[in-house]
Amino acid sequence: MAIVICVTNQKGGVGKTTTAVNLGYYLAKDRRRTLIVDFDPQGNASSGLGVDKSEIEAGMVEVMTGKVGMEGAIVATRTKNLDIVPTTPELANAEVELVNARGKFMILKHALATIAPDYDYIIIDSPPSLSLLTVNGMIAADYLLLPVQTEFYALEGVAQLLESMKLVRKAMNPNLQLLGVLATMYDKRTSLSAQVLAEIKKYFKDKTFTTTIPRNVRIAEAPSHGAAVGEYDKFSKGAKAYKELAREVVKRTSK
Ligand code: ATP
Ligand code: MG
Question: Which pLDDT tens digits describe the chain residue by residue (255 residues)?
């Protein structure tokens, strides 16, 4: 049965999609059957893995509106063991329409149940908001993975996110756990990065991943080639860091 990890932070541009895609890639390389769920209307995970959005016949829009089951929306990637359910911008409209639907918070959870036996890991890439989609992600997940950019204001909003996690746990998903907090875009030349990392560690203690993701131009370039950084330049520092993260995630989830 798949372990479901929701990559989330309502703050924009902190490395959620980059983490979902590259963690997924290295889990798959480690022979774990992995599915990435692109749950952000921006569809960055889809394009980042080379899915042509004009050719998407069914994706998260159709799943959320009940037109197809999850199995009808899965697309294989070039990488063995790595699949994705893509999305298109219409997911934003679907979200608005779902506001009055019954069981609106449980749609993703139910959708995943049918395909969970086929995977070892399911990774959900969330939008930068604490919206209906994000709550669906949290309810469907076993774990939250929280990427935090090592910049000023990094921890802003984190308290609110943890509060939402608590609420979800209390009301609908008592098993939800924080898998870890990942420092992203770490720049070892700046003292600010080190300061923010120290602050993260002080706050989250051993929930902070030992792996940090460096600021690395190869990571930023890879999506424009529709590839994970490990495919684009597997010897880059960024690729190595995500490989290490995958190892740490496997370790933390096999306890
Ligand atoms: P959004 O909130 O809009 O969904 P996000 O949290 O998913 O954003 P990403 O899209 O993963 O964030 O990253 C934001 C930008 O920073 C992207 O252009 C990405 O390529 C770049 N980026 C992410 N991680 C790194 C890194 N470690 N080094 C350099 N650039 C990075
Ligand atoms: Mg994103």
Answer: 999 999 999 999 999 999 999 999 999 999 999 999 999 999 999 999 999 988 899 999 999 999 999 999 999 999 999 999 999 999 999 999 999 999 999 999 999 999 999 999 999 999 999 999 999 999 999 999 999 999 988 888 898 999 999 999 999 999 999 999 999 999 999 999 999 999 999 999 999 999 999 999 999 999 999 999 999 999 999 999 999 999 999 999 997
pTM of the model: 0.97
Which three-class secondary structure state does DSSP give residue 180? strand
Using the CB atoms, write b or e for 207-218: b if 16+ within 10 Å. Answer: ebbebbbbbbeb
Number of Cα atoms under 13 Å in the Cβ half of residue 109:
17
Question: Ligand 1 pocket by C-beta < 6 Å: which residues?
Answer: 12-18, 40, 42, 44, 128, 184-185, 213, 215-216, 219-220, 223, 238
Those residues whose beta carbon sits under 5 angstroms from the ion ligand 2 are 16-17, 44
185 alpha carbon to ligand 2 midpoint, in Å? Answer: 14
Q: Give the H or E element holding residue 144.
A: strand 143-149
Centre of ligand 2 from the C-alpha of residue 129, in Å: 11
Strands 121-125 and 3-7: what pairing? parallel
Cα(190) to centroid(ligand 1), Å: 19
What is the number of the ligand 1 atom nearest to the C-alpha of 125?
Answer: 7
